[in-house]
Amino acid sequence: MANAVTLSDRGRLMPASPIRKLVPYADAAKARGVHVYHLNIGQPDIETPPAMIEAYRTLDRKVIEYGPSGGLVTYVKALAGYYGRVGLDVDPSQILVTTGGSEALAFVFQAVAGVGDEIIVPEPFYANYNGFAVMSGVTIVPVATRAEDGFALPARERFEERITARTRAILFCNPGNPTGAVYTREEMSMLEGLAADHGLFLIADEVYREFVYDGVEHVSVLDLPAVTDRAVLVDSISKQYSACGARVGCIVSRNEELMATVLKFGQARLCPPTVDQIAATAAMSVPDSYFEGVREEYVKRRDLTCDALASMPGVICQKPRGAFYTVAKLPVEDAEQFAVFLLDGFELDRETVMVAPAAGFYATAGAGRDEVRIAYVLNTTDLEKAMRAFEAGLEAFGRGR
Amino acid sequence: MANAVTLSDRGRLMPASPIRKLVPYADAAKARGVHVYHLNIGQPDIETPPAMIEAYRTLDRKVIEYGPSGGLVTYVKALAGYYGRVGLDVDPSQILVTTGGSEALAFVFQAVAGVGDEIIVPEPFYANYNGFAVMSGVTIVPVATRAEDGFALPARERFEERITARTRAILFCNPGNPTGAVYTREEMSMLEGLAADHGLFLIADEVYREFVYDGVEHVSVLDLPAVTDRAVLVDSISKQYSACGARVGCIVSRNEELMATVLKFGQARLCPPTVDQIAATAAMSVPDSYFEGVREEYVKRRDLTCDALASMPGVICQKPRGAFYTVAKLPVEDAEQFAVFLLDGFELDRETVMVAPAAGFYATAGAGRDEVRIAYVLNTTDLEKAMRAFEAGLEAFGRGR
Q1: Within the 342-381 window of chain B, which residues sit less than 8 Å (CB to CB) from chain A?
Q2: Which of A48, A199, A265 sits opposite B3 (nearest CB)?
Q3: Long-range Cβ contact pairs of B284-288 (< 8 A, separation 24 or more)
Q4: CA B374, CA B393: separation in Å to the nearest integer?
Q5: What local confidence, expressed as pLDDT, does residue A76 receive?
Q6: Would B317 disulfide with which of B81, B255, B328, B368, CB 3.0-4.6 Å?
């Protein structure tokens, strides 16, 4: 025993990606010459704003130095300007720049919750929240939402019955990944009251904040007066400027103690990427019309995808109001089996489609087994073909059972 | 009590930066028009290789996409090539690209040690190890080394007496920050035997691996046959290519289970910066002559700095063989007080110098109180002036007490 070498159990506890099992099947399909439409991942095909690309191309530095741990001062100021333009009064001292929204989430988990503490999250939720929970020794406590209700938040009581002495925060993604749900003013007020009454942090992952459709209002967590000291915004340029590989995100909060704490975490990792921040600063000057064009495009994609899904027999898909995902309930028992079938047992005109089984977005065992997440991140021509393949696949899968 | 909002104790436990107290004094000195030579931080003034800068400037992408969680395939292959050239047989599957050496350290802490586990580290050590320890709930157990011995490793027994049932690894920085010490083949064999006999991981932070002087051999942790399955290398381009703000590092290990685990952590944060990796790939083609030139420059700087220090009455400074730091023992009781004095109570021809009090690099309370870390990262002209100011300051401080 003395010389056995063992890892910590964190690795074992880390959840596998919801699509991990599918990848070899997708590779095999491609090897057979079958074209696979990837609706399984939130990697948009939208072009990064040229002004941002240009910032890399005109880089004028002889030494790529460390920046401040909290972010480049010029970028932080530009960010504060952006929040001001969307109606949120944010001081630069209330912003910490992070290496993507991922690091922002990791830092916030660490700051608000100790080992053994709990964070309540409406499910289905972004699967990587599980990863940050494991890494920080925090437990995620799910509260159910349903496809039939468009994944709207349940009544306040459903949250309250999950609150314990270890509960530290409520975390939610708005607009939602994987659901696309955008919470109404009423839902946000309910969360506000809950956090205020129970002394909880309210952590909003708003990385899809610019992707809200149909004239719906997006209510930011920073726009809730009763929780000024406990609201935490997690943001990122990844989706906003279609720059997922530029690892730049941020934490915004008016809680000074929290900001001092996350800055300490930031100091331990020195700084976020310098050149990506220079590029992100350039992105901040992109005019509003950029988002308008992007939103128009996504509305077309969403309508095409959701209308197609809703027309399929037995499929439940409420048209979501934000982000670029939808979770559809399928007339199948095991959506993972179906997702494998699409790649392994089926093709339509040498084409097929890859989707993410939704069970991986639930913490409750067995939940979401008949659901898939579809990311409508391709152009409408491709999406149309992808949905045709999906429908034919669903039919074929039904016949096969 | 119900509505009190509280943070976790991780923030409180996070150690402050060793130079935190000095920063306002440095700012005030500058405001008074006094020039401050920064020997307090490892930010080299060496130019980033032009080929790397050029890679940003010729970026040819329309979308800055996510890369693979383990790193861009081309970059991983280039890295394997680099290790091959320096005599280490590394397969691309044994490499995970990280967001700087910082993330590599955080992932390795998480992978090898659970909450409450212990990692043994020779002190003084890189202060941010404390931060990663707090964030992962791991305890650092120090083993003393001394300025008088050039910070060489102590006898194996000194390590063995710190090993408990919770010990999971020995972590060391080689060449060392803050000491500049380069471990001999004998010291490395001692660690190898220790790790093999006690079933511990051996984690080597080799981010200064190219900064070894005087023809001394650098023995990598990957070059220890008895610990093939428990050797973990942490590396980074930050110092190597003077590109600290390009956040690109890596973990290298032949332990498949460990690599699978850190890949899971990597998946949770999606990917390291895409464009920085493209630039890092370009850096890999920089010829060996680049390092030779850099080493020559640092040897000059080291000799100037250490010769100056050694000539000062009561100062102990063994000339280190690597990195670009040295820890000097001073004839003062409280080196932090002296460091403040240099900024606040002293100037020589409108100039002074900022150094890092070394106590922050020790885990043992009270250790290193009479030591400072000096980073010889400025050109020799500036260094000479800085050391002149340092000597005059030390004299003035002595007279004042």
Answers
A1: none
A2: A199
A3: B284/B75, B284/B78, B284/B79, B284/B81, B284/B82, B285/B51, B285/B78, B286/B49, B286/B51, B286/B52, B286/B241
A4: 15
A5: 98
A6: B328
Identify which has the larger pLDDT, B3 or A346: A346
| β-strands A351-354, A35-38 pairing | parallel
Q: Does B164 touch chain A (CB under 8 A)?
A: no
Which residue in A33, A35, A126, A31 sits closest to A353, CA to CA? A35
Cβ-contact A242, A109 below 8 angstroms: no
Task: Please state the rounded mean pLDDT for residues A314-337.
Answer: 96
Residue B206: strand, helix, or coil: coil
Cβ under 8 Å to B: A residues 84-103: 99-100, 102-103
Task: Give the side-chain half-sphere CA count within 13 A for A309.
Answer: 27
Q: Which of B282, B270, B279, B236 is nearest to B67 (CA)?
A: B270
Domains A9-47+289-400 and A50-283 equal at CATH topology level: no
CA separation for the pair A144, A167 (Å, rounded): 17
Q: pLDDT tens across A169-180, in order?
A: 999 999 999 999
Could you please state the CATH topology (level 3) that the domain comprising B9-47+289-400 is classified under.
Answer: Aspartate Aminotransferase, domain 1 (3.90.1150)
Instruction: Verify whether the Cβ–Cβ distance B9 to A245 is below 8 Å.
Output: no
Give Cα A52 to chain centroid, integer Å. Answer: 22
pLDDT of residue A401: 59
Closest CA to A355 of A75, A18, A29: A18
Write down the pLDDT at residue B399: 87
Alpha helices for A199-287 (secondary structure H):
237-240, 256-268, 274-283
Q: Is A13 on the interface with B (CB under 8 A)?
A: no
Q: Residue A2: pLDDT above 60? A: no
Number of Cβ within 10 Å of residue B395's Cβ equals 13
With a pLDDT cut of 90, the percent of chain B lying above it is 93
**CB-based contact (8 Å) between A139 and chain B?**
no
Write down the CATH number for the domain with range B50-283: 3.40.640.10
Chain segment A31-51, per-residue pLDDT in tens:
999 999 999 987 788 999 999
Does residue A5 surpass a pLDDT of 80? no
Residues in chain B within 8 Å Cβ distance of A16: 264
**What pLDDT is attached to residue B401?**
59
Q: What is the per-residue pLDDT for B1?
A: 40
Non-local (6+) Cβ contacts of B94 within 8 A are B80, B252, B253, B254, B259
pLDDT-flagged residues of chain B (< 70): 1-4, 401
Instruction: Tell me how far apart the terminal alpha carbons of chain A are, to the nearest angstrom.
Output: 50
Question: Taking the C-alpha atoms of A80, A86, A89 and A92 in order, what is their torsion angle to the nearest 10 degrees?
Answer: -10
Minimum-distance CB partner of B199 among A4, A59, A132 = A4
CA distance B336 to B39: 14
> Is the CB of B254 inside 8 Å of chain A's CB atoms?
no
Task: Kindly report whether the peptide bond that precedes residue A124 is cis, defined as omega within 30 degrees of 0.
Answer: yes
What is the rounded distance in angstroms from the CA atom of residue B199 to the CA atom of residue B202?
Answer: 10
Residues 24-63 of A with CB under 8 A from B: 43-48, 52-53, 56-59, 61-63
The answer to whether the CB of A387 falls within 8 A of the CB of A309 is yes
CB B249 within 8 A of CB B330: no
Place of tokens 């509505």: B3
Nearest to A174 by CA among A159, A187, A192, A193: A187
- With 0-12 / 13-18 / 19 or more C-beta atoms within 10 angstroms meaning exposed / middle / buried, residue A31 is exposed
What is the rounded distance in angstroms from the CA atom of residue A117 to the CA atom of residue A329?
Answer: 32
Residue A117 confidence (pLDDT) above 90: yes
Domain locations along chain A: 9-47+289-400, 50-283
Whole-angstrom distance, CA of residue B119 vs CA of residue B165: 11
Reduced DSSP (H G I as helix, E B as strand, rest coil) percent helix, strand, coil of chain A, to 5: 45, 15, 40
